[in-house]
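> example.struct
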């Protein structure tokens, strides 16, 4: 277990920002931390980054306890805050060299690592640009580049995609995927669930400082009891195919949408091969058959509502 919190509680005066939070994140996991504004995401991430102390309970990073062994934790983590700090009066390369020196990386090793992180974050063409001339998306990538210099095991990213346009969001997601595939453990917060769905292996949903859900991303959909929806397109005789499917066991609803037959299935296994088999056995030619992308936003709303009540 690379990250563990045990009854982690944080109070700001009378306000309880985190209430007995128990998180477990395994090595190599990409953990999406989701919750509305004020839920306690930043507070949790700052504690893991050793910048805040718990009021009660414990947070451990690589088995070191925050507050007692923070010095051992810092080299292991890379923390990207939700805002871009100062130091903007420098060019990109200087900026990264400055931080590399702060990590005691010098000489050829420094040149090498700065070049590497610029490549990885796709900023090599901006190495001589002033930091404050970068677009917001580039600044966010530069923030990620900065925390990669010391090759940390764990990345703590607080809403790295906020304020980015759709293209920059995709670029950020691709970058994070690359880092995930390099084996980094990633904790990333967001209040937008579907943005994390593709990237994350597990998610935690937090509201008012309490963890409402913690588990595999697929399970959230199951727990929200969303039916499997399948889109079918046949080459001809669509109406007949729809009639056939209506009578097929396991199909609970048949609709039409954009020239496709849309089916709702009563199981949660996502195995819809019997639909294809039924069509083929009855000599229908299938043009396309695919599962509808699950609306995670809906699942999220149902789940949090259900659990809060
Ligand atoms: N320094 C502070 N002093 C007092 N209260 C604070 C402080 N920092 C955070 N809080 C309160 O703690 C709660 C959790 O805040 P936090 O910033 O952790 O939420 P968040 O989930 O990151 O929200 P957002 O999505 O808006 O970033 C909020 O009610 C907030 O007002
Ligand atoms: Mg926050």
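> example.seq
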């Amino acid at each position: 277990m690379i990250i563990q919190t045990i009854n982690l509680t944080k109070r700001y005066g009378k306000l309880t920002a985190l209430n007995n939070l128990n998180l477990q994140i395994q090595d190599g996991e990409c953990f999406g931390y989701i919750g509305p504004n004020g839920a306690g995401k930043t507070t949790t991430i700052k504690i893991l980054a050793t910048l805040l102390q718990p009021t009660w309970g414990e947070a451990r990073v690589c088995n070191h306890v925050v507050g007692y062994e923070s010095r051992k934790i810092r080299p292991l983590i890379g923390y990207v805050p939700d805002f871009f700090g100062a130091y903007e009066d420098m060019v990109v390369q200087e900026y990264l060299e400055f931080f590399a020196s702060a990590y005691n990386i010098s000489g050829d090793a420094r040149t090498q690592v700065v070049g590497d992180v610029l490549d990885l974050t796709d900023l090599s063409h901006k190495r001589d640009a002033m930091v404050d001339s970068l677009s917001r998306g580039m600044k966010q990538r530069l923030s990620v580049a900065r925390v990669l210099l010391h090759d940390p095991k764990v990345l703590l990213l607080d809403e790295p995609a906020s304020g980015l346009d759709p293209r920059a969001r995709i670029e950020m997601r691709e970058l994070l995927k690359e880092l995930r595939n390099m084996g980094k453990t990633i904790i990333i917060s967001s209040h937008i669930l579907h943005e994390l769905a593709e990237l994350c292996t597990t998610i935690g949903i937090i509201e008012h400082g309490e963890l409402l859900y913690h588990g595999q991303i697929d399970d959230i959909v199951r727990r929200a009891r969303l039916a499997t929806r399948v889109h079918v397109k046949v080459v001809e005789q669509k109406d007949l195919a729809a009639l056939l499917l209506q009578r097929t066991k396991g199909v609970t609803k048949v609709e039409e949408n954009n020239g496709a037959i849309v089916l709702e299935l009563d199981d949660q296994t996502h195995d819809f091969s019997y639909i294809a088999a039924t069509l083929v056995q009855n000599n229908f030619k299938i043009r396309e058959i695919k599962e509808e992308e699950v609306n995670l936003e809906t699942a999220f709303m149902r789940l949090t509502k259900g659990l809060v009540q």
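> remarks
The first helix runs from residue 41 to 48.
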